[in-house]
Design a protein that fits this description.
The chain is α+β, with helices and mostly antiparallel strands. Helix content is about 50%, strand content about 5%. The chain is built from 16 helices and 5 strands. It has a 5-stranded antiparallel sheet. A hairpin with an 8-residue loop joins strand 1 and strand 2. Helix 1 packs parallel to helix 3, helix 10 packs across helix 14 and helix 10 packs parallel to helix 16. The longest helix has 19 residues.
Length: about 400
């Protein structure tokens, strides 16, 4: 009788995100139950979902299936991954089949198709696209990863700008140790979270940035690579529409989601959206004046005055005539959060974006809680900067002006 062991990450593999780990465990449990019912190969294949765009998921899936001690596992693995031609999957598949053999499971020597080497042919199934969170000025980094045979490099690193199109477009060919150093440099800049996006959507973003400013150096480099990029990562017109991909917001849920956006503003993803220290300084002084004012007689009066200052600061730092830009960026972030499986945060970002697009609504309901949350966070951080340093050093939450590597608005 086949049991469903709890899937574990292979040594050397980063653990899956909690929602992906739960999905993996669910699929393996279904396979184990189907084996007990003596299901056929086609039925077993329908219970698991390989992802040609995510080799990490596929390798975790192979390892989890290989942990199920049953004669049907070798044919199932071959049916799911036997046609893979990329090195990562082929190596993981052979390793998993070998482990099954060492546990007494028969693996026919002709189970996998013979590998035919084609010099210069790109390996399928290795098109990956990552995008950074949007910065406060609307910029972002976009990285295409693929086999070096496609572009003569395995990393295409681009920086996209709302106003300048493609600001950077650099092709790199990085070995494993160099890749570790590459990602470490981004982490030093505060970019430790990336979004895995559909490859065709990444091409669409590159295309849009290129067409807005086609005559700069980065645009010329992209134009020379575009045909190969489209051939491997997908055509931009086949990309999903990010707004249509998001579930609609029920009217009854909108107030709760807008309230949730206040907490979302504290997320490190939006750290570069906050005002700079010099911008927030005068408002910190105004709040201190309210705190010390002898004219404020009671605590409720003080809270009303403090809240009024926060509203005034939010309107000054995020002017109404610029809020369409913030709303557009929030819609993009809503899509990325949706792809990450953070549905509550995605819906809160979308609700805020729609709220910012309807100024008459904001006028009736008060200042945007999300933007107000950004202001509150900045005031808190700047206040902490001016406090005497505690033993053990500074918290590291805020760097002095000029030291921060984050791109501010």
């Amino acid at each position: 009788m086949a049991r469903a062991p709890k899937p574990k990450a292979r040594t050397g593999l980063a653990p899956l995100a909690p929602e992906l780990q739960a999905r993996l465990e669910s699929q393996i449990a279904q396979v184990a139950a189907a084996l007990q019912a003596e299901a056929g190969l086609d039925a077993l294949k329908a219970l698991v979902t390989p992802d040609p765009q995510d080799f990490e998921w596929d390798v975790h899936l192979m390892a989890a299936l290989g942990a199920v001690k049953h004669p049907a596992m070798a044919p199932l693995l071959a049916a799911l991954f036997g046609e893979a031609r990329d090195k990562v999957r082929r190596k993981a598949l052979k390793k998993t089949l070998h482990q099954l053999q060492t546990r007494g499971i028969a693996v026919p020597h002709d189970l996998l198709p013979r590998e035919e080497v084609q010099v210069g042919a790109p390996r399928p199934g290795t098109a990956k696209a990552l995008v950074s969170p949007l910065f406060g000025d609307g910029d972002c980094y976009l990285i295409l990863q693929g086999p070096p045979e496609v572009l003569r490099g395995n990393f295409l690193v681009s920086r996209l700008s709302e106003t300048e199109g493609l600001k950077e477009c650099v092709l790199l060919n990085l070995k494993r140790q160099q890749q570790d150093e590459f990602w470490a440099q981004f982490r030093e800049q505060g970019l430790d979270e990336w979004f895995d996006i559909p490859p065709a959507y990444a091409v669409r973003l590159l295309d849009e940035a290129y067409r807005s400013q086609p005559d700069n150096d980065a645009g010329y480099r992209f134009a020379g690579l575009r045909e190969k990029i489209v051939g491997h990562w997908g055509r931009p017109e086949s990309a999903p529409d990010p707004v249509e991909a998001l579930p609609p917001i029920p009217a009854s849920e909108r107030p709760r989601l807008l309230e949730h956006s206040r907490r979302l503003a504290m997320d490190s993803l939006f750290r570069s959206w906050i005002p700079g220290v010099e911008e927030i300084g005068p408002w910190l002084e105004k709040l201190a004046e309210v705190q010390k004012s002898p004219l404020v007689l009671s605590e409720p009066q003080k809270q009303v005055r403090l809240d009024a200052v926060l509203d005034e600061a939010t309107r000054a730092l995020y002017p109404p005539d610029n809020r369409g830009n913030w709303g557009r960026r929030l819609k993009a972030m809503a899509y990325y959060l949706h792809l990450k499986g953070r549905e509550e945060d995605s819906q809160a970002a979308l609700a805020t974006a729609e709220d910012l697009a309807a100024p008459e609504t904001s006028a009736l309901t008060g200042e945007s809680l999300f933007l107000k949350g950004l202001v509150q966070q900045t005031l808190l951080l700047v206040w902490q900067m001016h406090q005497p340093e505690e033993p053990g050093g500074a918290s590291g939450l805020v760097a002095p002006p000029g030291d921060s590597l984050l791109i501010r608005r």
